[in-house]
Design brief:
Elements: H1 2-31, H2 38-55, H3 60-89, H4 94-116, E1 131-132, E2 139-140, H5 141-163, H6 165-175, H7 177-182, H8 187-212, H9 217-225, H10 229-233, H11 239-255, H12 265-275, H13 277-288, H14 302-305, H15 315-330, H16 337-343, H17 345-361, H18 370-384, H19 390-409, H20 417-436, H21 439-442, E3 451-452, E4 455-456, H22 460-482, H23 484-495, H24 497-502, H25 507-533, H26 543-557, H27 562-579, H28 585-594, H29 602-628, H30 638-654
Antiparallel strand pairs: 1-2, 3-4
Length: 655
């Protein structure tokens, strides 16, 4: 009887997980875009529902109608028109669309944080939350209502996709948009409908989840992101399998409450597994699968992040740029103690951002788990620094992060594009949930700043100079990655992985190497970040709060430029300092990322275009002067003048 009660109790969570998975599949099948912002759309819709029903007093059914039939589809259509239609029209790679969805996620998180704050809300339930007890069972009415919503929504969607011309048009647009348009299909209308439908499913997911849990911008978004396991299990193609996986997840999670393996570490592991079951399923599904049915193939990201240097800067221009960079780098030494302590975060973040440039900009591999490597470096440094010299502890932290990166590099060998992005995201999430958030690993951890040859770096000025020295070493490593045969091989992998393999490049080995080096750099930056704050905070390395925003910043500023990564780190710290709260930069960066399709290459490419615009008028003036200048009269010899006179006389006699 108890097992049946838990089974029925799990239907509610399972139905919502199924709804979320179906919503992501709808958007993907209709547009070819894997919507990383699905959870943020669900969160924003739930806040809007709460505002209408609980704050402004509208009836719950009317608030739901407004959100589901007006706000959500309109939001989806606007996103398609403003953000993704320009990407589709220039045949952007799937990775570009993925980056745009991450930008929308970061933007919506920032908006929710500014508008509604961090306080948890408790919206009214859309369906009656009565409890029935037939035959000794405990049945929650809202759980069956959620299941009914899944059945009705999925059945209607299946009929739409299979029995209507729109379904045929959707499949045609996803397979080959250009050919579909040649056959008369309005691809823009199909994509807009797909985004509208996906947003409606996301909104319903958010409304149902917010009443079961609590409404918090971060946590609600994260719960929906955990349901990525459903479309992955379904291979991004099969909606019924996604529904079945979601319901099985909810029931299985509920039934786990029946078991208690004892006390001590085993119980802690069991509780962690229970709380993070969707993450485990996502990672297992990605590791077991050999491929995903990715729309547009496994296209690389060369067109997204590779940047063409249209104008090579002159020596005076380079001297000016590096001179300004040096002035900016050493300027914090003149700050007051409070602002100097804030500025110490810039070199630490810059090294982490540079590690993203190494793996993404230089080799074309999308890594969404960089915060996990940074956290490993920080945690190992903190764990061993109490018993060993701090510099040795720092080296141990870097090596530990490198080992994790080496292990991640092997699953990355046969994965590209979206498949690789989801795999690295799952690995980073697994490390965060099962290492950083477990008291067994983090209790009693103390962080101390290092000392070099007996010279203590506890002082803010000394520690900042130490960070700059390590940042310079990171730049030296990046220079060696970019130059010589290694750099040419990495560029070949980024531009065309199959072509690089065809000309003899050892793609497998280079992928493992670049993931290892990138993880070591991230571990170094993470250890410095912990030293800057003199504490290890697991929230600093959370996938949603760190990995995705960090990746977005690097892409916005130019994923192919280490200098741009440092500028991005400076902007993050500056905006947070001016706004007085962590995460304030997310609105600005998310907005830029959402419109990245209009500026491939990011801020670094914009800087190059401005430089080209400044230099082009001068070049045009020089070329104009060359064409309009009077040509010098040639001076002929005596023989030449005599020959010319004979030629003129011959022409005169003939005339």
């Amino acid at each position: 009887m108890l097992a049946l009660n838990f089974l029925f109790a799990g239907l509610a969570l399972g139905a919502v997980a199924a709804l979320s998975g179906v919503g992501m599949l709808v958007t993907y099948r209709a547009t070819g875009v894997f919507n990383m912002a699905h959870g943020a759309i669900a969160m924003l819709s739930a806040y809007f529902y709460w505002q209408l029903a609980d704050e402004w007093g509208l009836p719950r059914w009317l608030a739901a109608v407004i959100v589901l039939l007006a706000f959500a589809p309109a939001f989806g259509a606007v996103v398609e028109r403003v953000v993704f239609r320009p990407l589709q029209r220039r045949f952007a790679s799937p990775a570009e669309s993925l980056v745009a969805t991450i930008g929308i996620l970061v933007l919506l998180l920032g908006i929710a944080h500014v508008v509604w704050g961090d306080q948890a809300r408790h919206p009214s339930s859309l369906f009656p939350n009565d409890v029935l007890h037939p035959g000794g069972l405990t049945l929650h009415v809202d759980a069956f209502a959620d299941l009914g919503a899944v059945i009705v929504g999925t059945a209607g969607l299946g009929l739409l996709l299979r029995l209507t011309p729109l379904g045929t048009q959707i499949r045609a647009v996803v397979d080959r948009r250009d050919l579909a348009e040649l056959s008369g299909v309005n691809a823009d209308r199909v994509a807009a409908i797909g985004w509208a439908l996906g947003s409606v499913f996301a909104a319903l997911t958010g409304i149902l989840l917010a009443s079961q849990l609590s409404l918090d911008s971060f946590n609600l978004t994260w719960v929906v992101l955990e349901t990525f396991a459903m479309p992955v299990i379904a291979g991004l193609t099969n909606i019924p399998i996604a529904v079945g996986a979601g319901i099985a997840l909810g029931i299985g999670s509920s039934e786990m409450n029946l078991f208690s393996p004892g006390i001590g570490p085993v119980l802690d592991i069991w509780n962690a597994l229970h709380a993070n079951l969707p993450v485990v399923l996502l990672l297992l599904a990605l590791l077991v699968r050999k491929r995903l049915a990715q729309s547009g193939g496994d296209a690389g990201i060369a067109t997204t992040f590779a940047q063409r240097r249209a104008v090579e800067p002159t020596i005076p221009a380079m001297a000016l740029q590096y001179g300004l960079a040096a002035v900016v780098a050493f300027a914090p030494l003149l700050f007051d103690p409070v602002h100097l302590r804030e500025a110490q975060e810039v070199p630490a973040l810059a090294i982490i951002f540079v590690s993203i440039v190494a793996v993404t900009g230089y080799s074309g591999q999308i890594s969404l788990g960089q915060a996990g490597y940074a956290g490993v470096g920080a945690l190992f440094f903190a764990k061993v620094s109490g018993d060993t010299p701090e510099l040795v502890a720092l080296l141990i932290g870097v090596l530990a992060a490198g080992i994790v990166g080496f292990a991640t590099g092997y699953p990355a060998i046969r994965r590209r594009g979206l498949f690789l992005a989801l795999t690295t995201f799952a690995v980073g999430t697994f490390v965060s949930r099962f290492v950083f958030q477990q008291p067994y690993f983090t209790n009693g951890v103390t962080v101390r700043r290092p000392s070099v040859f007996g010279w203590s770096l506890a002082g803010d000025h000394a520690f900042y100079l130490f960070e700059l020295a390590l940042l310079a070493i990171a730049f030296l490593i990046m220079y060696n990655l970019r130059s010589g045969s290694l750099g040419r091989s990495l560029i070949a992998i980024r531009d065309n992985e199959d072509g690089a393999r065809a000309v003899g490049v050892d793609v497998r080995a280079l992928k493992v190497i670049i993931f290892t080096v990138s993880a070591m750099l991230a571990g170094l930056g993470g250890a410095l970040l912990a030293q800057q704050k003199v504490t290890f905070d697991p929230s600093d390395f959370d996938p949603l709060a760190a990995s995705l925003p960090w990746f977005t910043v690097v892409v916005v500023f130019g994923a192919d430029s280490a200098v741009a990564a440092v500028a991005g780190a400076a902007l993050v710290v500056l905006v947070n300092s001016l706004a007085g709260q962590v995460g304030a930069y997310e609105i600005l960066v998310g907005l830029l990322a959402a419109f990245l399709g209009r500026l491939p290459g990011g801020v670094a490419e914009l800087n190059r275009r401005v430089l080209e615009w400044v230099m082009t008028p001068r070049a045009l003036m020089r070329r104009y002067a060359q064409h309009t200048a009077p040509r010098p009269v040639p001076v002929l010899s005596e023989r030449g003048r005599a020959a010319l006179d004979r030629l003129h006389a011959a022409r005169a006699s003939r005339s």
